[in-house]
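Extended Data, panel c. Modelled sequence:
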Amino acid sequence: MTAALLSALTVVIMFVGSMLTMFSYDFAMVASGGAAVFLAAPVYMLMVRRVNRLGVTTVFTTVAALLFCTMGNMLFMLPFYVLGGLLLDLVCLRTPRQRQNPWWITAAWTAFSGLYLLSTLIPYLGNMEAYVSQTMLERGLDQSYADTFFKYYGNPAWVVAIMLATMAVGFLGCLVGRALMKRHFERAGAL
């Protein structure tokens, strides 16, 4: 239950982080993923350490995928998230000792940050132009949205750069999370 509730809180924080970048299409295309993973990292770290059970990341990614689907993402993203979470659990957070080690949790979140950014590209793989046109119609966006989108996500170099930057910001978010864990939760005996 704790994993599900903290997962939902983490996703809400990710939405807020993304929304903070929406004042400019250019800024949003480059920074929305990074803002989301930076702000959510401390809650994810708390969740992993507090729950300390194999599968906590899988629960998180499943809850995230389901909530993302309610916001308009495609259902075929669900297996991507579930399998990604399972893989992160099995590689980074397999043992109780790994789930208490901030570096393993940081590795899992950093990898998730890259997967999170790549998952946003899944709907575009079939026919990017058709998907962008449909998105523009459904959300009432103008042509400048499409132009900005293709400027960044139509160029593989930009995609790689944005993914690496998102992973770096996710890593930094974990460093902040580690400081918060020490300062507030470990001192209070909550962990």
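The longest helix spans residues 156-186. This feature is highlighted in the accompanying rendering.
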